[in-house]
Amino acid sequence: MRDPATQHLTLTDGRNLSYSDSGTGEHGTWIHCHGIPGSRYELNHLNEELRRAGLRIIVPDRPGYGDSTPHPHYGFAQHSADLRQLADYLGLQRFSVSGFSGGGVFAMATAHDLGERVARLTIAATPAVPVMNSPFDYASELTANAWQAALSNPETLALELQALTESAEGLSHALKDAAGPDEARHLSADPLKQAFAASIGAALAQGPVHSATAMARDSALIANRWPFSPAHLTLPVRIIHGGGDKLVDQQHRHALLDHIPGSVAGTGGDLLDSAGHYAVLSYIWA
Q1: Does pTM top 0.85 for this prediction?
Q2: What DSSP letter does each residue of 221-243 carry, written as one string?
Q3: Computed from CA positions of residues 58, 75, 165, 11, in that sequence, does the dihedral angle turn out positive or negative?
Q4: Which of 104, 147, 265, 273 could pair covalently with 123 via S-S, beta carbons 3.0-4.6 A apart?
Q5: Distance between CA 281 and CA 271 in Å, rounded?
Q6: 3-state DSSP call for residue 60?
Q7: What are residue 74's phi and psi, to 5 degrees?
Q8: How far apart are CA 235 and CA 118, in angstroms?
Q9: Regarding beta strands 29-33 and 16-23, do their DSSP bridges make them parallel or antiparallel, or are they unpaired?
Q10: Which of 20, 102, 90, 96 is nearest to 61 (CA)?
Q11: What are 27-49's pLDDT values in tens digits?
């Protein structure tokens, strides 16, 4: 059994990649792409459950989050290259990939770029901004404003986000407020409360400037036209969304289902009744 404490990998260009690594892997190994913001601690509340299920879950911090070195020209191709190096280092020839919220787009890019090395893909609460006609009408004000600002000027967005990244408490409050009262209550109950606090805290570990820059960069990457086509994802894809998601409305799920032919029949479009944005994390491996 692996300890989910922070691990470190020195990448070929000298950058540090921090990640958590938990579980046995007897029933499968997954690399998980955290949300925006998020970190290697995003799934801490599920560690025991996933261990009992025999799963191994690896969660790397993207550059600027956690202990991962910032990258001035980071994009989807570099993300996939970093995860390829991590998989090689860990001796993983074949594995599955998951992604939460904005991290779902990074997960799709990884599945596309790494080809047959990725066995399955699961994305949850994932936005589909560039493949929708009116994406900003189907999101919270906080989320829609971030996407719009990222499209027009990510550098300005990074400066504006510094007011939120000054403290984990302030950022957490803003996210809970945008997610709605039901989801705020969900996030305030242990063990998710502790995991959420740990994840946001790690996301801001490098200070407000680096954290805000990483959030603005990721927001721009997911909101602009993707350098891959979802239609080219030929592996089994499961798409999960909460029917009560206030941050990213379920209309984004419908758009993804329309654009990803590899959705698994019967479970590809999991819509979880009134579940909110963060509540769907518990269902990624259900």
Answers
A1: yes
A2: HHHSPPSS-GGG--S-EEEEE-T
A3: positive
A4: 104
A5: 13
A6: strand
A7: -70, 140
A8: 8
A9: unpaired
A10: 20
A11: 999 999 999 999 999 999 999 99
